[in-house]
Amino acid sequence: MQRIQLAPRADWRRKAEALGFTFHTMHGQAYWDESSAYAFTLRQIEDDLEDPATALHAMCLEAVAQVAGSQELMERLGIPDAHRDLVAESWRAREPSLYGRFDLVYDGTGPAKLLEYNADTPTSVYEAGSFQWLWLEDMQDSGGLPCAEPDQFNLLHDKLVERFAEILPPGEPVHFASVRGHEEDFATVEYLAWIAKEAGLVPHYVPLDAIGLTETGQFADDEARVIGTLFKLYPWEDLLLDDFAGHIAGAHCRFIEPAWKALLSNKGILPVLWRLFEGHPNLLPAFFADEMQGGDPAFERAREALERGHVVKPIFSREGASIEIVERGATTERSVNRDYDRHPVVVQAYAPLPVFDGARPVLGAWIVGETCVGLGVREDDGRITQDLSRFKPHFIMG
């Protein structure tokens, strides 16, 4: 694994904007950054990232089954009492999932360690699945990469097309919803809608605040079309607290992602995973905050690692908000954004991100259906990856 300095394409901004990738620069800072790229060997991709991520997803499903059958764990994960049956029934019915993204720490030597699973509303799918592939093709054509036959771990677009076609029959209408006025979220659902169209479906866009109820209790868009399938780029933890939550069970609407993803996208799944698979090479010790008081055998076995360093994470949090790194009892880094401070927290052993030329990458391993199908890389100069962290292309050295 290397971070290699490269000459950016002269026309990449024009190409990005022509394709609707208008958020390549945000708040005056580069979000898409191709002045360097991460290079991997095929062995690193296949043995250290692809296969372990696929195995991690299978382990996560076992953890979901554990939580879905436990009122205590449902409570620990903050699932509102009124909607626990909805979540559990969604799991029992095995309602199909589209995609998710593991965030992994990896330095090229392995094993990769799981930081969290963005299993409900993962973004950067366009950057990972489409724009970085275009970058690879352009760089191949220009000879701009330092190897003869470069490749990329990137089946994301094609596998999403296949997965949509597995979930829904040809010609099925699908509504795509995001928060009105949020440029990045709209671009994400627009890209997924194009993928759905490629899969033979009929996509419609509706802002979340424009969704209403019919007289029979079904959801409808702003043109009075009944919503039979809804892809919502809106987290389940917020949706279950919404005024409309009480109507979900009777709305006869298929949700993508399904309600059981409220368990998998929740950082409370990390302690459950550790209990089920303690010592697994791709996991970090993780516990609910009250378990840090000691006495529990599993905690005592992990005490040394946790006292050396741990990360405090709210069970609900995104883009690095409300994160705190503690080393030897002292806070050494704390997120400026504290939007999720109100939520209960978990504690996970600290695995420092590797440093390449002063930058710290996090690897995003994309899951479609049950399998790892692609990779995205984001990096930051700080130790906490956040909303403006740079997206970096990658390639496999041929």
Summary keywords:
Rossmann fold, 398 residues, five-stranded antiparallel sheet, alpha+beta, 31% helix
Morphology = globular
User: What's the total number of strands?
Assistant: 21
Q: What percent of residues adopt helix (DSSP H or I)?
A: 25-40%
Side-by-side strand order of the widest sheet: 6-5-18-19-20
Task: Outline the biggest β-sheet.
Answer: 5 strands, antiparallel
State the domain count.
2
DSSP helix count? 11
Helix/strand-derived category reads: alpha+beta
Amount of beta strand? 15-25%
Report on this structure.
This protein starts with a strand and ends with a strand. The protein contains eleven helices and 21 strands. The protein has a five-stranded antiparallel beta sheet with strand order 6-5-18-19-20. Strands 13-17-14-15-16 form a five-stranded antiparallel beta sheet. Helix content is 31%, strand content 24%. It has helices at 12-18, 42-68, 71-76, 84-92, 125-142, 156-167, 183-198, 236-239, 261-264, 269-276, 297-308, and strands at 2-5, 25-26, 29-30, 36-40, 99-105, 113-118, 173-178, 202-207, 212-213, 219-220, 229-232, 254-256, 286-288, 309-314, 324-327, 330-334, 345-349, 360-368, 371-380, 390-392, 394-396. Helix 2 crosses helix 10. It is α+β, with helices and mostly antiparallel strands and 398 residues long.
